[in-house]
């Protein structure tokens, strides 16, 4: 297993460079420019792999500001992120968070030790990167491929999706996936579950979504995950007593499973949803 896995070509314009068999980092190539969607932790430099895909000017964007999506921003001069997630990302740019991330990954994949240098990694700071902010409706024209920003708060306050209407592609970060969706941090970092429900209902109104590309797990997945996520949140309110308590490297959480929808949540988030509802 490699930290930066081999390039996977998904179609004529789309590639994936997975990090540590976990984070799907997408490279979208238009006729004029290319885009990297999420940098991952940045445990190891993967810019040469991008250059094998394309030598076109590169735009780098983050679907949200969590460490496994944005700490690799130190590898790039300029990165786009939603303003609401920038300070959280900056807060996690420290040795303690990085040590937790490295130790968690090495515990799962000890064979990666020869590909990672924690001391060097801790010295890489995203403060040296210029960050720019996008908002709902902003778009990036790569030449024949236009990616539009859709604000999808819920997993974080500044989560966004990137939507290519002609192709019907939706890049959703951690908001939609056949994978654990983390919402167990305190309310400073994890919005109320009603916010996540509003996002799912917003996405359900979008007619032309053909393929969903999550940041974790299998790819692509179909739009059925939107309805499953809505139903899964509703199911939580009546079947939470069946959920197991688990340990993650960011603390404990409860795990609710409904078909392909998997939510990690806190007791406080559940209590808020039970008291105030999901609408």
Summarize the structure.
The chain contains eight helices and 16 strands.
Structure description:
With 279 residues, this protein is of the alpha/beta class. It is built from eight helices and 16 strands. A hairpin with a 2-residue loop joins β14 and β15.
Order of helices and strands: EEEEHEHEHHHEEEEEEHEHEEEH
Structural class: alpha/beta
Unreliable runs? none
Q: CA-to-CA gap between the ends?
A: 43 Å
Task: Give the CA-based shape.
Answer: globular
Percentage of residues assigned to helices = 25-40%
Strand order of the largest sheet: 1-2-3-4-5
Overall mean pLDDT stands at 96
- Main sheet properties: 5 strands, mixed
Count of DSSP E strands?
Answer: 16
Cα-based radius of gyration, to the nearest Å: 18 Å
* β-sheet strand percentage: 25-35%
- Tally the helices: 8
Q: For this entry, what is the oligomeric state of its chains? A: single chain
List the helices and strands and how they pair.
Layout: E1 8-9, E2 14-19, E3 23-29, E4 34-37, H1 47-53, E5 58-61, H2 67-70, E6 78-82, H3 83-91, H4 95-108, H5 118-123, E7 130-134, E8 139-141, E9 146-151, E10 160-164, E11 169-173, E12 180-183, H6 193-204, E13 211-214, H7 224-239, E14 244-248, E15 251-258, E16 261-265, H8 267-276
Parallel strand pairs: 4-5, 6-7, 11-13, 12-16
Antiparallel strand pairs: 1-2, 2-3, 3-4, 8-9, 9-10, 10-11, 14-15, 15-16
Keywords, please?
single chain; about 280 residues; alpha/beta; five-stranded mixed β-sheet; 8 helices; 16 strands; globular
């Amino acid at each position: 297993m490699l930290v930066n896995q081999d390039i996977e070509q998904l179609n004529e314009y789309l590639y994936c460079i997975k990090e540590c068999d976990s984070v799907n980092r997408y490279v979208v190539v238009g006729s004029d420019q290319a885009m990297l969607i999420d940098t991952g932790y940045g445990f190891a430099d993967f810019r040469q792999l991008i250059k094998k895909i394309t030598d076109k000017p590169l735009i780098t964007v983050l679907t949200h500001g969590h460490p496994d999506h944005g700490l690799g921003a130190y590898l790039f001069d300029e990165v786009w992120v939603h303003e609401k997630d920038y300070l959280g990302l900056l807060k996690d740019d420290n040795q303690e968070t990085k040590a937790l991330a490295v130790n968690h990954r090495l515990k799962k994949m000890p064979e990666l030790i020869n590909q990672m240098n924690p001391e060097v990694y801790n010295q890489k700071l995203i403060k040296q990167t210029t960050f720019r902010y996008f908002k709902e409706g902003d778009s990036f024209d790569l030449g024949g491929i236009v990616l539009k920003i859709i604000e999808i708060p819920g997993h974080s306050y500044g989560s966004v999706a990137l939507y290519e209407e002609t192709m019907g592609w939706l890049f959703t970060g951690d908001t939609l996936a056949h994978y654990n969706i983390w919402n167990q941090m305190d309310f400073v970092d994890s919005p109320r579950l009603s916010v996540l429900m509003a996002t799912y209902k917003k996405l359900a109104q979008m007619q032309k979504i053909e393929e969903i590309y999550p940041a974790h797990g299998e790819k692509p997945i179909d739009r059925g995950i939107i309805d499953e996520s809505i139903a899964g949140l509703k199911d939580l309110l009546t079947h939470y007593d069946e959920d197991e308590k688990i340990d993650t490297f960011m603390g404990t959480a409860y795990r609710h499973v409904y078909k392909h929808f998997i939510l990690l949540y806190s007791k406080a988030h559940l209590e808020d949803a039970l008291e105030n509802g999901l609408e």
